[in-house]
Amino acid sequence: MLKNEVYAANLLLPKYELVIFTWGNVSGIDRETNTVVIKPSGAEYDTMSAAEMVALTLDGKVANGELKPSSDTPAHLELYKAYAQIGGICHTHSRYATVFAQACMPIPVFGTTHADYFNGTIPVARELTEAEINGDYEKATGRAIIDTNFDPAEIPAVLVPSHGVFTFGKTPLAAVENAKILEEVALMAFHTLMLKRDISPLGGTLLHKHYCRKHGKNAYYGQ
Ligand SMILES: [Zn+2]
After folding, report:
1. Looking at the domain assignment, is residue 15 inside a domain?
2. Pairing outcome for strands 164-169 and 62-64
3. Annotated catalytic, 136?
4. Ligand 1 geometric centre to CA of 221 (Å)
5. Within a domain: residue 170?
6. In this structure, what CATH number is given to the domain that contains residue 164?
7. Considering the entire predicted model, what is its pTM?
8. 62-109 residue pLDDT tens
9. Is 223 a domain residue?
10. Which of 53, 138, 174, 206 could form a disulfide with 3 if both were Cys (CB 3.0 to 4.6 A apart)?
């Protein structure tokens, strides 16, 4: 059941040390019924239950749930509408990825850890306009991510300038795993840049090799 899946995925956020307090949220979608399930707003990870997860229609009407959905829900809904292949979305302010987001710096591919999971630079979304910030802010955040023109199958993560990160997956669990991998990649990239400021990103051949041996048509990594 989607509520259990979304609940379990949310519990991984503090476990993977991607959030503190009530920060962050994970959602999932059932594409057959177009039902989105997301964490309730401000819910404590320690005490929330699977039953408290909020179910909504794609246009944001609460279908099932006593509590208010996460305030970031409109961003999630925009992304589900734009990308039919996304089954789960995760939003965090995980430390190193957010350091890049605050600096408005994309994360270049510096090594094969990055190349194993992301087929290129992790992009930064555009900044919001004054009108967007004062208006439907969360929905505009989703629109700005979509304007990045990223392909969630190839690069399932986008940095939101001065804010945090959104990651994607075929399932809520996959979106959280991508958030953890992104954080590790951001930590490595940060320290690489500290050690050597003028390092060049990985050449296309090695990037392609690593990405494709895991995800390409003829992938051979794993059992
Ligand atoms: Zn946020």
Report:
1. yes
2. unpaired
3. no
4. 34
5. yes
6. 3.40.225.10
7. 0.96
8. 998 899 999 999 999 999 999 999 999 999 999 999 999 999 999 999
9. no
10. 53
Tell whether 220 is covered by a domain: no
Question: Which residue range forms the structural domain that includes residue 52?
Answer: 2-215
Q: What separation in Å is there between the alpha carbon of 166 and the centre of ligand 1? A: 9
Of the residues 16, 83, 116, 136, only one is catalytic, namely 116
Query: Based on the structure, what is the number of domains in the chain?
Result: 1
Ligand 1 centroid – CA 143 distance (Å): 15
Is residue 16 part of the annotated active site? The answer reads: no
* Separation of CA 73 and ligand 1 centre (Å): 11
